[in-house]
Amino acid sequence: MTAQPSSETAVNPVAAQGLRGPKPGFSVTPRQNDKGGIVEVRPMAKPAHMQKRHRALLWSFFVCVIVPLIAVASYLWVIAEDRYSSTAAFTVRQEEGGSATDLLGGLAQFAGTSTSGDSDVLYEFIRSQTLVSLIDQKLDLRSYYATHWNTDPVFALWPDASIEDLHWFWERIVKVSYDQSTGLIEVQTFAYDVAMAQIIASEIVAESQRMVNALSHAAQRDAIRYAEADLELTQARLKKTRQAVTEFRTRTQIIDLGADIQGRMGVMNTLQQQLATELVTFDELTKSARSTDPRLAQSLRRIQVIRDRIAEERREFATTEVLETGEDYPTLISEFEGLNVEREFAETAYNAALAALDGAKANALRQSRYLATYIVPTKAEESEYPRRFIIVGLVALFLSLSWGILVLVYYSLRDRA
Fold it and tell me: How many domains does the chain have?
């Protein structure tokens, strides 16, 4: 017999289906599905409304982003002084050398004709404390940029600034861009009035020109000094070799060894010609006369005598000692040739050093390096700085990112707590 469901089960269908009861705070509306089962249906969600944490988040955004942004914008548009800019651009050029420079060869290296590093030196000079001091002495930059300290302390220089402080502030009022591949340098200066910005740019160009001239003059002085030192060495060497030749002539009592040798060789040449003539005569007699002809015997005797004389001359030339020296001619010839080669080399070196000195002096008469200014200091017509919209945009971006990061960090720590 099948048991009938009780009235309690019919009244509580959720319990009959073995389901859990509704969660606290929710009302349960039982419904039947297609299969006749009972399902639990939650009620519609209520409209969302502001919670306490949402108000705190908006308040933090207002305090951390909106308020500082309004303060920055107010300072830029109300307090900050307008600034004007002036732009100048230049590069270091070198005067093209002529044929004289090519003839001198290595002198160009001493003269410093390569300008590959001149622009690098000039770029560092513009950013150096030396240039800042020079321009400050002429224009009194510290007093000028400290004028608006009481009204615009963010962009002004403090009144009691030292030269180191002014050098630090120089990076804010002078922007230098340098293209190392082309050697082009562009300078942009900032001031509270148009004239001062242009004057500062002009002074930078003038001091850069003096710096380039100083480099050029120093290189030229070094070139002349090196050339003079080289000339002194070659001149001393030439004097030494000439003195050695004079001592050789005094010792051997031979003014011109070459002429003396040619005189001795002239006798040898004469004997050689006579020998050749006798040989020709002997050949003719051999073909036309009998073997018993006395002319053949006479010709043979003359040939033998000439040969003996030639041999004797050669022996005397190789073994005969020169008077007052105790040395033979081959030794003297070897010594004289060595002295002669040394003298010729010294004379060649002296002539080259003399030409190098003349070339260095000629190069010093003209300016081998010069500053080519392709953009003269410009004169502004309206104020472009400070760039207020760009600064406000960057500040807004930075503050928003910082606030967002802090919020994420806070919620991450709260969830782990």
Answer: 3
Q: Are residues 231 and 360 in the same domain?
A: yes
Beta bridge partners of 369: 94
> In this structure, is residue 331 part of a structural domain?
yes
Distance CA 333, CA 318 (A): 11
Q: Report CA 169 to chain centroid distance, whole Å.
A: 27
24-57 as b/e, with b when 16 or more CB fall inside 10 Å?
eeeebeeeeeeeeebebeeeeeeeeeeeeeeeee
- Domain of residue 17: give its range: 7-41
Assess if residue 287 is contained within a domain.
no
Do residues 32 and 120 share a domain?
A: no
Same domain, 173 and 232: yes
- Cα(309)–Cα(271) distance, rounded to whole angstroms? 8
Query: Position 405: which residue type?
Result: I
Residues 219 and 104 in one domain: yes
The token duo for 336 is 């004289």
Helices (H), 28-162: 52-61, 67-74, 99-104, 107-111, 118-126, 129-139, 141-145
Tens digit of pLDDT at every position of the chain (417 positions):
444 444 444 444 444 444 444 555 445 555 555 565 666 667 776 776 777 777 888 898 999 999 999 999 999 999 989 999 999 999 988 775 544 334 334 434 444 444 557 888 899 999 999 999 999 999 999 999 999 998 889 899 998 899 999 999 999 999 999 998 888 999 999 999 999 999 999 999 999 999 888 888 887 888 888 888 888 899 888 888 888 888 877 777 666 666 666 666 777 778 788 888 888 887 877 877 777 777 777 888 888 888 877 777 777 665 555 555 556 666 777 777 788 888 888 888 889 988 888 888 877 766 577 888 999 999 988 888 889 999 999 999 999 999 999 999 988 888 776
Helices (H), 289-387: 294-319, 329-364
Evaluate if pTM is beyond 0.70. no
Residue 415 burial (CB count, 10 A): 7
